[in-house]
Amino acid sequence: MNLKTHTPFLGIPQSSGPLRAKQAQSLLFSSALPNLDKAVLNSTLASAPKNSGKLLKSLDFTDFAKTTANQVKLIYGMIILSRIAAAGTRSWNEVRETIVRDGSGFAFWLFTVPMFERLMLYAMDHKYQKGLVIQKPKPIGSGFKAALKKLNYAINPLKRWEAPTSNQIKDRMAQVLDQLQKQGIGKDTDLYRQTALKFKRVADKVNAVKGAGVLLTIAMLGFVLPLLNIAVTRKNVKEGKVGRTFPIRDVQHNHPRWG
Amino acid sequence: MTPQFPSAATGSLQAPEVLQAKSPLAVANSGRPNAARNTASNPAIRFGQASGPLAAFSSAVDLLQNKAIELAFTDLLGMSIPRSYIEYEKRGWDSARENAIREVTGMLFNVFVAGWIAYATTRLMVQQVGQFNPLGVNHRAWLDRSGLEAFSAIYEEVLQRPEIKTPEAAERAFTAEVLKRLQSTDAKVGRKLVEHSLGDALKQNQAVRTAISQSLAQDGKLAPETLQALSEAFHDSAAKVDLMGKAIHHSPMPDLLLPERLRLSQTLFSKQNDKHFLAVVDELAKRGGLTDRVHLLNAQGGILLEDRGRADTLKQVRYFLHEVLNRAHHDPSGKKPAVSVSDWKQNARAVVYSKSEAASGGFWAKHLPQAEDGLIEYMRKSKNILTVFPLALTVILGISVAFINNHITKKRHGGKVFSPIEEGLRDKMRLSEAAAQPQAKNALAKGGVFA
Fold first, then answer.
1. Do B303 and A2 touch (CB under 8 A)?
2. Under an 8 A CB cutoff, do A162 and B188 touch?
3. CA angle, A176 as apex, A175 and A182 as ends, to 5°?
4. Percent of chain B topping pLDDT 90
5. Distances from the Cα of A97 to the Cαs of A74, B283, B367, in angstroms?
6. Under an 8 A CB cutoff, do B58 and A208 touch?
7. For chain B, what is the total number of helices (H) and then of strands (E)?
8. How many helices (H) and strands (E) does chain A have?
9. What's the first-to-final CA gap in chain A, in angstroms?
10. Which residues in B lie closer than 8 A to residue A117 (C-beta atoms)?
11. Contact present, A61 and B118 (Cβ < 8 Å)
């Protein structure tokens, strides 16, 4: 079983600087390097660079000049804050619309497709298939962090179920078909084609679920959220709740102390 | 069958036989008479062809496997086009224009602009061999921080082995170790999927079942024979840079050769060459047992690098060999020839891991890459610039759009500050009321709220 462990630099658990260097030295000296100049090694490892911070690591480009999902979250988050600030200079209706539109937009745009996909695959697997999804082990332990992990496991389909992507299914197909050929089952045989077809159908189903997730996202982002916003703003405009001051005016009018 | 790999002399690549053969998708539909193709009862007909609605939909969704394309697609079709249309219909031109500017620029800034700025910054920085890039490292051969640390940790493990006597042995052992530790993310569920997807006829065929079981017994890792072939491929591709590394090592003025080394590296890692190399090694890795997404494991079997693209990881192994290990083993600053095993290992460690005295100096020495820095430190400082600057600039540009949008609306209406989402709605409501009262309609048509 793969347990996610925090990876230390040089295989040494992270701790404060000098302690880390000492651990490195003891680790190296305990191994088979009898001929090393210990003084030189000492100085080299004592000055070894520390690990990059978690934040910088998470925001790094993983491929050259290709924006990553974490970077998108940061940039979009900052843009949303600026939109709220800019809307605040004009109207509270606009602030509300921005929060509803972009706050939900952030969630739908970045998370709906993978979460919907995993949930649907689980539902499909439960009813029709056996082989698309497996349940990950439930987190164990006590304390605040463990409780958060358990909560995430309970509500987040991505943390709960493991499923292959359609590309992975196609790769598995290629591997199995290779084995068939090695066993003398050629490309012209029905057995070969039927096996390929079975895999392709599974890949199609996974793709169809992903496509449904994309369509759901488009429907929510493009139609449900804007129409909902317009309906609420229309009601406010009819009631005269417009501009930058209406919430204060509203409170003043309705609050007993202000008459 | 031994696949052919990039020649050290020419740098050319020849695809192994496994790539020259037609893919199963192509084979399943080739060489069949038209009548047979049109027989709906034949299950092989629909395979690989977008003939059914599900298959057609699936082919379209295949285009969205790239996350950036998926995000841009959902943004354009979800946030930009329908919202702008709805805004125009319900609240008028100003609201629609604001929405179009906000969402289209939002999509560009969110998904693409940081990458474009990083591309331009890297191109500029790489060329500054004397100043911002004193060691002439090709940052185009991108190694992210996590990858760099994971690979250098594995390299250190390799150096500690007593049987590793030469730099070449260290490079080979490093490559083999990394490849051995790659594991498909679908190791468990993939096994279940394969077992489920085998037809009854295959399930009853004991020989086939055994063969497939054995191939799956690798637990989502590479088969030993593929591991050997892949190691050779990486070693061959490193040979040309190795020659340059040796030349620099033995040159009386190694600094003069650094720009030449950089040029060679840029040629080797051009998009075209990368594409050729990856076409070979990626296909080999796929046939050898790895699927599209992989983990890199540590010695204890825990996850060192989580859920990476297979091709990206293989590419980074190559970059690490060329840009880090090659320099570690042919260090121009290590003047004395490495006569003993401990000598070259010590030199290599110093080149890779050490931190320069300059790093404890002033602000710029701490944050800009120095010639005296160990490679890890050097690359980390470079990446701070190459990541933080594009992100910061993108955020600044991105957050300015909302205020520019407001300014345009204000300027279009003679300095009047108002919210088009309210005024546009009010205007439309008045128009619809006026439609019921013809005399009011004429008055409104002459003026309106924005007049």
1. yes
2. yes
3. 95
4. 30
5. 21, 49, 42
6. yes
7. 24, 3
8. 13, 2
9. 67
10. none
11. yes
- Taking each helix axis as running N to C, give the angle between helix B93-107 and helix B420-436, from 0 to 180 degrees, rounded to the nearest 10: 140
Q: Is the dihedral of CA B52, B54, B60, B66 positive or negative?
A: negative
Q: C-alpha dihedral over B71, B77, B81, B84, to 10 degrees?
A: -80
Q: Write down the pTM of the prediction.
A: 0.79
Q: Which of A35, A49, A97 sits opposite B341 (nearest CB)?
A: A35
Please list every residue in chain A whose beta carbon sits closer than 8 Å to the beta carbon of residue B401.
79, 82
Q: Give B299's contacts in chain A (Cβ within 8 Å).
A: 11
Which chain B residue has its CA at the smallest distance from A204's CA? B58
Q: Cβ of B402 and A79 within 8 Å?
A: yes
More confident residue, B171 or B212: B171
Asked whether the beta carbons of residue B57 and residue A65 sit closer than 8 angstroms, the reply is no
d(CA A191, CA A10): 50
pLDDT for residue B356: 62
Distance of CA B383 to the CA centre of its chain: 15
B55: pLDDT strictly greater than 60 = yes
Of A3, A171, A173, the CB nearest to B302: A3
Residue B51 has what pLDDT?
57
Separation CA A161–CA A182 (nearest Å)? 34
**Alpha-carbon span B128 to A105, nearest angstrom:** 42
pLDDT tops 80 at residue A150: yes
Residue showing tokens 């698309």: A132
CB contact under 8 A, A179 and B150: no
Mean pLDDT across B156-180: 91
Low-confidence winner among B40-49, B237-246, B418-427 (lowest mean pLDDT):
B40-49
What is the spatial distance between Cα A222 and Cα A220, in angstroms, rounded to a whole number?
A: 6
> Is the confidence at residue B112, as pLDDT, over 50?
yes
Task: Count Cβ–Cβ pairs < 8 Å, chain A vs chain B.
Answer: 401
Q: Which of A201, A195, A198 is nearest to A180 (CA)?
A: A195
A8/B contact by beta carbon, under 8 A = yes
**Residue B333 contacts by C-beta under 8 Å, 6 or more apart in sequence?**
B254, B351
Terminal Cα distance for chain B, rounded: 80
Contact across the interface for B193 and A47, Cβ inside 8 Å: no
Tens-digit pLDDT profile for residues A165-211? 888 998 999 888 888 888 888 888 888 888 888 888 888 888 989 99
Task: Report the C-alpha gap between B332 and B336 in whole angstroms.
Answer: 10
Cβ atoms B319, B311 nearer than 8 A: no
Chain B's closest residue to A184, CA to CA, is B208
For residue A4, the chain B residue with the least C-alpha distance is B303
The four Cα atoms B51, B57, B63, B66 give a dihedral, to 10 degrees, of: -140
The helix/strand/coil state of A177 is helix
Residue B134 pLDDT exceeds 80 = yes
Is residue A21 within 8 angstroms of chain B, CB to CB? no
A40 touches chain B (CB under 8 A): yes
Q: Do A52 and B380 touch (CB under 8 A)?
A: yes
Collapsed DSSP state (helix, strand, coil) of residue A247: helix
Facing A217 at nearest CB: one of B74, B195, B304: B74
**pLDDT, position B425:** 80
**pLDDT value, residue B58:** 82
CB contacts, 8 Å: A29 with chain B: none
A31 interaction partners in chain B (CB closer than 8 Å) = 160
**Would you say residue A94 has pLDDT above 80?**
yes
Q: Do A60 and B145 touch (CB under 8 A)?
A: yes
Pairwise CB contact (< 8 Å): A7 & B153:
yes
More confident residue, B371 or B254: B371
